[in-house]
């Protein structure tokens, strides 16, 4: 699944355009490496580092979502590692 689509479906970004801007500006890391391609494929088991507000959130992708659903459904697809 494309990274921009995943960020939108997991409700970290309000739209794919916002997700694409974050990726283009180099704010997202996948498995410790800065992501520069918007269409970078993401699979279950990948670890993403995201800027959330004034902090940073590290998550592990458990499963890939089929759709952009409610927040509870989205949270079932990842595990927070930095809590």
From TrEMBL:
CDD domains: S4 (cd00165). SUPFAM superfamilies: Alpha-L RNA-binding motif (SSF55174). Residues 1-65 form the RNA-binding S4 domain. The keyword Translocase does not apply. One of its GO terms (molecular function) is RNA binding. Pfam families: S4 (PF01479). Keywords: RNA-binding. It comes from the Bacteria. The keyword RNA-binding applies. This is RNA-binding S4 domain-containing protein. The lineage of its organism: Bacteria, Pseudomonadati, Pseudomonadota, Alphaproteobacteria, Sphingomonadales.
């Amino acid at each position: 699944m494309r990274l921009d689509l995943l960020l939108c479906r997991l409700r970290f970004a309000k739209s794919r355009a916002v997700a694409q801007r974050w990726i283009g500006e180099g704010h997202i890391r996948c498995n410790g490496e800065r992501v520069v391609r918007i269409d970078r494929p993401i699979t279950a088991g990948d670890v993403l580092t995201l800027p959330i507000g004034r902090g940073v959130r590290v998550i592990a992708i458990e499963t890939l979502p089929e759709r952009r659903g409610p927040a509870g459904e989205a949270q079932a697809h990842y595990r927070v590692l930095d809590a």
